[in-house]
Design goal:
The complex is a heterodimer of chains A (about 220) and B (about 800). Chain A is of the alpha/beta class and about 220 residues long. Helix content of chain A is about 35%, strand content about 30%. A six-stranded mixed beta sheet of chain A has the order 6-7-8-3-9-10, with helices on both faces. Chain A has a four-stranded antiparallel beta sheet with strand order 2-1-4-5, with helices on one face. Chain A is globular. With about 800 residues, chain B is α+β, with helices and mostly antiparallel strands. Chain B has four domains: about 1-45 and about 265-400, no CATH class; about 55-260, no CATH class; about 415-440 and about 655-789, no CATH class; about 450-655, no CATH class. In chain B, strand 13 (about 500-505) and strand 14 form a beta hairpin. The chains are: A alpha/beta (about 220), B alpha+beta (about 800). The interface between A and B is medium-sized, with 25 and 22 residues.
C-alpha cells in the first residue's frame, strides 16, 4: 500500500466557530492507481491534495505513507519524504519565470545535490521524452499554456516520484491542450506512476480508474 | 548551486532594473557621504598624531594667550630639568623670496634648534639633524619646493631675500601632514632671523610677546608637577618684577586642535550626520530588499516544493544580498573618489582615501558590507523560511504583519525629521549670511576702490614710494575722485594689535584696552566714515602727531562725557601720550559675527609710501568704473610691468563670511541627500503598502471610487506621518538654530517662514514620491487585481 488516511479532520476557527475543511476522510491508495477527486469549488479538493502532499497539516487523524506515520513525523523528516516520493503539478504551472525550460527542469536536481553530468543526462532525457528539446532555452513566458504545463509535468517527474499530485492540471488550458495533458497522465500511469488529480471536469475525471467525490469536506 | 543562484540573481536584477538601481545607488551615495564625513571627522580627531612625542608636547600660554615672551623658553630649559626639549616660533616676517625669475611674497618663520625634534615632520630631502644649524640654512615645505623648483631637487638651492644680496640655502624639504597644527612654508633659525631683521633681538625681552613656545616634558611629568617652577619664572622675571601675576600654563598639544582650533560643535554635528546618513541608507536598503523579496515569495514556494531546504534558500538570499551590497560598496567608493577633490576644494581640506595605507578604512568598509549584507539577507530569509508553503505558492506574504508597519512608519518619521531640520537649517544659515552681508557697515561700500600696493615686488623702495605718491596725487586731481588715502589696513584686514591705555588724570585702575589701527591722511573722509564729534585726519596742514580717533564703543568704555581733548598714555601712565581729537561711529572693521571692540585709529605719517599696504580712492557718485579705468591706466604708466590688484571697500569684510558660506553649502548638500534618502524610504514603504492594498483599491473602484479619490486616500496616510515629522522637527531645529546664532554678535531672527518653507518642501516631495506609486495602483483595472488565481 502506498498511503492510507484514517479519520482525517482539518478545520479553521472563524468567528468562534470551527469551520471544517476536511471531515473524517478515509482513503487507501495502492501503488499504480489513478484517482480523480471531484467536487464543486470549496469542497476541499485542493486541501486534501495538500494534506496528501504534506504541504499542509491536519488537525486530527492518522496518515501513513509507505508505512511511515506522517502525523508523528517531524517537519524535516516529512519534507524529506515528499521530496523523495511525490511530484506536484499545479493549475498555474508554477514555473520560475527567471529560469529557462532547461533550468526549471534542472532546479529540483540541484537540491538533490546531483553531479552536473548526471543532471545533464536526466534533463536531456526528460526534454527528449516530452518532445521539448527545441524549447529548452526559452523562458516560461515564451511558451503557450499547454507547453508550460508540459514542462510542469516534466519537472514533477524528473526526480522519479512514486506519486504525482495534480491540482486542476488543465484548469487554465483549452480543450485540445487539456486532452494532451490527460493522455500524458494516462501513459504515465500505464508506466506505473500513481496519480491523484483534483478536477471538476467530468471528462478529465474519467481518465482516472477510481473517483472520489467530495462535498463540504466530506466524502460522498 | 552557486552558479544557479548567480544566474537567478542577475536575471532578477535585469527584470527589476528600477528597484535595483534605486537601491544600490541609494546605498552607494549613502556610503560615499558617510565616508567623506567620516574621513573629515577622522582627520580632525587624529590631528598632530604624526608627532612621535605628541603625548609630551605642550604649548606654553600666558593666561589665555599663546603669544609668549622671547626669554621664556631659554629660561625654562635652564631652570626646569623636566623640560627636556622645546622650540620657539617667531611668525612675524613676510617678504619677497625669489629663485631666478620665480618670486612670491612669503611668510618665513624663525625657530629654535629643537623645532625638528619637537615636531617630527617626515623629511623628503635632507634630514632633521642640524637642518637649520648653519646660518642661512632653511627647511622648506613640499608645497614651497614644488612652487619654486618643480620636480627638481631643492637641496642646496639658493633663495634670494627681497632684492638684497642675502641668500638662503635649502637644507631640507619636509612633507607636512595635512592635519598638523603647526605648519610652515619656510623656516630658518633665530640666528638667521636676527641677521636678516635685527629688530627681532629687541623684542625678545621680558615684556614683549612675539613668540609661540612649545616644550617637551620628560616622560611621566605632568604640567601640575612643574606649576610652581613656572610661576617662579613669572615672579622672578616678568615685568614688573615681583608683582606680575600672569598665569603661565601648559596646554597639551594633543588637545590643542580640539580645544582651540577645531569647531567641536561642527565635528559632533558632522559625526551625527554621518552616522545618521549611513543608518538611514542601510535601513532603506534593507527595507527595499525586503519589499523586493516579497515579490519572489512564489519562487521560493516552488523551490520548497521541489526540495529546497531552508539552508539552501538562506544561501541563495545571502549570496544575493552580499553581492548587491558589494556592488553598492564599490559604487560608494567610486563616488567617493570622484567627489573627494570637490569636497577638498570646498573645504580647503586635504583628505585622501587610501584603505590600503590606513587599514582602519578596510575595517570600516568590511563592517558596512557585513552589516548591510547580513541584515538585508537574513530578514527576508526569515520571511521566506517562515512563510506557510501553501500561502507562498499563492504569492501571499501579507498575512498578519500589521504590527510591523508602526516601526516602518517611525523610520520614515525619523528620516523626515532629519530632512526638515537640515532644510530649515540651510535656510537659516543663508538668512544669517544675508543679514551679515547687508548690515549697514557704516562706511561707504559703494564708491570706494582700493588698490593693494604689494610693495614687495618692487626693487627700489625710494622710486616706488615716489611713484605711489605721484599716482595718488594724479588720482586726487581727477574730477571723478573725491579723495584718496593711504592706510595700513582697510575694513576686514584690521590687525590683531592691542595695547593698554591709561587715561590722564584718572585713577590707575581704569585702563582701556584698545585695538590699534594706523591710517594716513583723509582715511575717514575717503571711506565715508562719519565723525560723531571732533575731527579726523584731514589733510589740512595741521599736524596730527600724537593724536587718536576712537570709536563709539571705546568712548562708552572710557566713560567720559566729553572726551575730545583728553589724553591717553600707551603702555603705562608715563607712556607715549595721544590726544583724542575725534569720535567715529562703530564701523564694521571686522565681520559682524564678532562683538564690537573699542577701536583706536592712529595717524601715521609715513616717510616712505611703500610702508603702506593700501591706497583707497573714493569716486564721486556713479563714477566708480571710470575711476577703476583711471587707476589701471595710471598703474600701467607709472609702474610698468605690474598689474593693479583692486577691490571694493566691503570685499575684504565679506571674505570674513566665507566660513559660513561653506557651512551653508555643506548643510545644503546634506539636506538634499537627506531628502533623497527619505524619499527612497518613502518609495519603498509606499510600494509595499499599495501592494498590500491593491485588492482593496480594486473593490473600491468596482464600487464607484474615482482615481482621484483613491489617490487622496492613499496619500493621506503618508502625509499624516510627514506632518508628524514636521511637528517633531520644528522644536529641534528651533533649538539648534538658537544655539548656532548664539555665536554671533549680530544675529538675524528665526522666522516662522523658514519652517513653513522647509515643511512645504518636504511635504511636496513626499507627495510626489508617494503619488508615483499610488497613481499606478489607483489606475489599475479592477478585473486584473480582483482575479484570484
Amino acid at each position: 500500500m502506498l498511503l492510507q488516511l484514517n479519520g482525517i479532520f482539518k478545520w479553521v476557527q472563524q468567528g468562534g466557530q470551527r469551520v471544517f475543511l476536511l471531515k473524517d476522510i478515509n482513503l487507501e491508495v495502492e501503488e499504480g492507481e489513478f484517482i480523480s477527486i471531484m467536487g464543486p469549488s470549496g469542497s476541499g479538493k485542493s486541501t486534501l491534495l495538500n494534506v496528501i502532499g504534506m504541504l499542509d497539516d491536519f488537525d486530527e487523524g492518522e496518515y501513513n505513507f509507505l508505512d511511515e506515520p506522517v502525523h508523528q513525523l517531524k517537519e524535516k523528516h516529512r519534507a524529506n519524504l515528499y521530496k523523495q516520493y511525490i511530484g506536484f503539478v499545479f493549475q498555474a504551472y508554477h514555473l520560475i519565470d527567471e529560469l529557462t525550460v532547461y533550468e526549471n527542469l534542472e532546479m529540483p536536481l540541484l537540491y538533490k545535490k546531483l553531479k552536473g553530468s548526471e543532471r545533464k543526462a536526466m534533463v536531456a532525457d526528460m526534454l527528449d521524452r516530452f518532445g521539448i528539446v527545441g524549447k529548452k532555452d526559452l523562458f516560461p513566458t515564451q511558451l503557450s499554456g499547454g507547453q508550460q504545463q508540459l514542462v510542469g509535468v516534466a519537472r514533477a517527474l524528473i526526480s522519479k516520484p512514486k506519486l504525482i499530485l495534480a491540482d486542476e492540471p488543465t484548469g487554465n488550458l483549452n480543450s485540445k491542450q487539456s486532452n494532451e495533458i490527460m493522455e500524458l497522465f494516462k501513459e504515465l500511469n500505464d508506466d506505473g506512476v500513481t496519480i491523484i488529480q483534483a478536477t471538476h471536469n467530468e471528462k478529465n475525471a474519467a481518465y482516472g480508474k477510481r473517483t472520489l467525490n467530495l462535498l463540504d469536506g466530506r466524502k460522498v | 548551486m552557486f552558479k544557479h543562484n548567480l544566474k537567478l540573481f542577475l536575471r532578477s536584477i535585469i527584470k527589476n532594473k528600477t528597484t535595483f538601481l534605486i537601491n544600490t545607488i541609494g546605498l552607494g551615495v549613502g556610503i560615499a557621504s558617510f565616508l567623506v564625513l567620516a574621513l573629515y571627522v577622522y582627520n580632525d580627531l587624529t590631528y598632530d598624531h604624526f608627532n612621535k612625542n605628541l603625548e609630551n608636547i605642550y604649548r606654553v600660554r600666558e593666561g589665555e594667550s599663546v603669544q609668549t615672551k622671547g626669554q621664556l623658553l631659554p629660561q625654562m630649559l635652564q631652570e626646569i630639568p623636566e623640560v627636556v626639549d622645546g622650540t620657539r616660533i617667531f611668525d612675524w616676517e613676510e617678504f619677497r623670496i625669489s629663485y631666478n625669475d620665480i618670486a612670491f611674497l612669503e611668510n618665513i618663520k624663525y625657530v629654535d634648534d629643537g623645532f625638528f625634534s619637537v615636531f617630527t615632520y617626515p623629511f623628503i630631502e635632507g634630514s632633521s639633524k642640524n637642518a637649520i644649524g648653519e646660518k642661512y640654512g632653511v627647511v622648506i615645505s613640499k608645497k614651497f619646493a614644488e612652487k619654486y623648483f618643480g620636480s627638481e631637487s631643492a637641496l642646496e638651492k639658493q633663495l634670494r631675500i627681497k632684492f638684497d644680496d642675502v641668500f638662503l640655502t635649502v637644507k631640507g624639504v619636509v612633507d607636512i601632514p595635512a592635519n598638523s597644527s603647526v605648519t610652515f612654508d619656510i623656516v630658518a633659525s633665530y640666528e638667521t632671523g636676527e641677521e636678516i631683521s635685527s629688530w627681532i633681538m629687541d623684542v625678545h625681552d621680558w615684556y614683549n610677546t612675539f613668540s609661540e613656545t612649545y616644550v617637551v616634558l620628560q616622560d611621566g611629568t605632568k604640567p601640575e608637577d612643574i606649576k610652581t617652577k613656572l610661576q617662579n619664572i613669572v615672579t622672578e622675571n616678568f615685568l614688573p618684577v615681583g608683582e606680575n601675576k600672569t598665569d603661565l600654563n601648559l596646554l597639551p598639544s594633543k588637545e590643542y586642535h580640539s580645544v582651540v582650533e577645531s569647531n567641536q560643535t561642527l565635528i559632533v554635528i558632522l559625526a551625527i550626520i554621518a552616522l545618521g546618513i549611513i543608518g538611514i541608507a542601510i535601513v532603506n536598503f534593507i527595507n527595499l530588499t525586503i519589499t523586493g523579496s516579497m515579490a519572489r515569495i512564489k519562487e521560493i514556494g516552488i523551490k520548497k516544493v521541489h526540495g529546497a531546504t531552508s539552508r539552501t534558500l538562506f544561501q541563495q538570499i545571502m549570496t544575493e544580498s552580499l553581492l548587491v551590497s558589494f556592488i553598492a560598496l564599490i559604487l560608494g567608493m567610486v563616488l567617493l573618489i570622484v567627489l573627494l577633490p570637490a569636497f577638498n576644494q570646498l573645504f580647503e581640506a586635504d583628505l585622501s582615501f587610501d584603505p590600503f595605507e590606513n587599514t582602519i578604512w578596510l575595517g570600516v568598509l568590511a563592517l558596512i558590507w557585513g552589516i548591510v549584507g547580513l541584515l538585508s539577507g537574513s530578514i527576508p530569509a526569515l520571511f521566506w523560511a517562515r512563510g506557510k508553503l501553501t500561502q507562498s505558492l499563492r504569492g501571499n506574504v501579507f498575512s498578519g504583519d500589521t504590527k510591523k508597519s508602526a516601526s516602518r512608519y517611525s523610520l520614515i518619521v525619523v528620516q523626515f525629521v532629519i530632512a526638515i531640520v537640515l532644510i530649515s537649517g540651510t535656510f537659516l544659515v543663508r538668512k544669517q549670511i544675508d543679514y551679515m552681508l547687508h548690515k549697514d557697515p557704516k562706511f561707504d561700500d559703494e564708491n570706494v576702490i582700493i588698490a593693494q600696493l604689494d610693495s614687495w615686488q618692487y626693487e627700489n623702495p625710494k622710486t616706488t614710494s615716489q611713484n605711489f605718491k605721484r599716482i595718488s596725487e594724479e588720482l586726487e586731481a581727477s574730477p571723478y575722485v573725491e579723495s584718496v588715502s593711504f592706510s595700513g589696513n582697510i575694513p576686514g584686514t584690521y590687525n590683531e594689535n592691542y595695547n593698554v591705555f591709561y587715561p590722564e588724570g584718572k585713577n590707575n585702575t581704569e585702563t582701556l584696552y584698545l585695538r590699534k589701527a594706523y591710517v594716513g591722511n583723509n582715511y575717514f573722509k575717503t571711506f565715508g566714515i562719519a565723525l560723531l564729534s571732533g575731527s579726523g585726519f584731514e589733510k589740512n596742514g595741521l599736524s596730527h602727531k600724537n593724536t587718536v580717533v576712537l570709536n563709539k564703543k571705546a568712548i562708552a568704555e572710557l566713560g567720559i562725557p566729553n572726551p575730545i581733548g583728553k589724553v591717553l598714555h600707551e603702555g603705562s601712565e608715563s607712556g607715549e601720550p595721544y590726544k583724542i581729537i575725534g569720535v567715529i561711529d562703530d564701523i564694521s572693521y571686522q565681520g559682524v559675527q564678532h562683538e564690537m571692540q573699542p577701536l583706536a585709529h592712529f595717524y601715521s605719517k609715513q616717510e616712505s609710501f611703500t610702508d603702506w599696504n593700501y591706497l583707497s580712492v573714493k569716486a564721486k557718485k556713479g563714477s566708480s568704473l571710470k575711476v577703476v579705468d583711471l587707476m589701471k591706466e595710471r598703474w600701467d604708466k607709472v609702474l610698468p610691468g605690474s598689474t593693479l590688484s583692486y577691490f571694493f571697500a566691503d570685499d575684504k569684510l565679506n571674505e570674513q563670511y566665507k566660513e559660513y558660506i561653506k557651512i551653508n553649502t555643506v548643510i545644503g548638500w546634506f539636506s538634499i541627500l537627506a531628502v533623497i534618502l527619505s524619499c527612497m524610504g518613502l518609495f519603498a514603504l509606499s510600494a509595499y503598502t499599495t501592494a498590500r492594498r491593491t485588492k482593496e483599491i480594486g473593490i473600491r473602484k468596482v464600487n464607484g471610487a474615482k482615481v482621484f479619490q483613491i489617490l487622496a486616500m492613499l496619500n493621506k496616510d503618508f502625509l499624516k506621518w510627514v506632518v508628524f515629522a514636521f511637528l517633531i522637527a520644528v522644536p529641534i531645529a528651533w533649538y539648534a538654530m538658537q544655539k548656532w546664532l548664539e555665536g554671533f554678535a549680530h544675529k538675524t531672527t528665526v522666522s516662522w517662514r523658514i519652517f513653513a518653507l522647509a515643511g512645504f518642501i518636504a511635504m511636496a516631495i513626499a507627495l510626489l514620491t508617494v503619488s508615483w506609486q499610488s497613481f499606478k495602483a489607483a489606475r489599475k483595472k479592477p478585473v486584473d487585481v480582483l482575479r484570484d488565481e
